[in-house]
Every structure is written in C-alpha cells, then in structure tokens.
Amino acid sequence: xxxxxxxxxxxxxxxxxxxxxxxxxxxxxxxxxxxxxxxxxxxxxxxxxxxxxxxxxxxxxxxxxxxxxxxxxxxxxxxxxxxxxxxxxxxxxxxxxxxxxxxxxxxxxxxxxxxxxxxxxxxxxxxxxxxxxxxxxxxxxxx
Length: 143
Fold this sequence. Notes:
CATH topology of the domain at 7-103: Aminopeptidase
Largest sheet: 7 strands, mixed
C-alpha cells in the first residue's frame, strides 16, 4: 500500500485566500452537491477563521470556525476524500476553537457525514432538516 502524502493545514485569510477557498467550496458544494451559488457565500465568511488543507502543494480542502463556535463549510475535493484530509481539518478546527477559549463547538452535518462526526466525538440532537435541499442534523461536541 502506498503511504499517503503529508497533509498540511494552514490558516487562511478570507481576503488573501478567497479565490482558493471559493474554488474548493464551489467544486464540492455548488458543482458536486448542487448548492445554489448564492447560498454558499454569506456574511460569516469575513468574520470566520478559515483553514486550508494542502497536499503536495495543492489546496484540497477547507473549513471554517465562526466566532460563536460553529464549524462549517468543511469541504474536501473528491479525489482526496477518505485519505485523512477531513480528519486533519476537523482536528485543526477543534484546536482552533480550544485556542479561542471555546468549551463547545456546534455544526450542522449532512446526514451522509454523520458517521464521520460521530467518530470524532460529536453528538446529534434535534430533528433532521433541509439546508440547500440537503438533509442535515445539528451536532455538538464539548472540548
């Protein structure tokens, strides 16, 4: 089995790195999952802490942490899924939340991603709901 390349996670500035962040999210959410483009971008992008996953010099994933402790917009390009990129991004977002003194994080998980978040200690709550036509569940995790 071929060893996986190193995954680097670095902070991303919304203004300086916006084109890279947008390209990943457009590929995953807009093109692949058919999220309307006008629903993908919001006022929280400018105030969130964004992280970027890079493999072999190529940006392959992103996620953000909002000031209120919500994790969101986690996206990994298809060819890099199930290779540790999502794990690395989520762990880095949790570390970022801890550094900011947060004691709990929240997220709205796509139903198909529930096993991923459950493996990372998240708990589901409430009823299933639709966001951009995709079924989600609210989840939380204490830090």
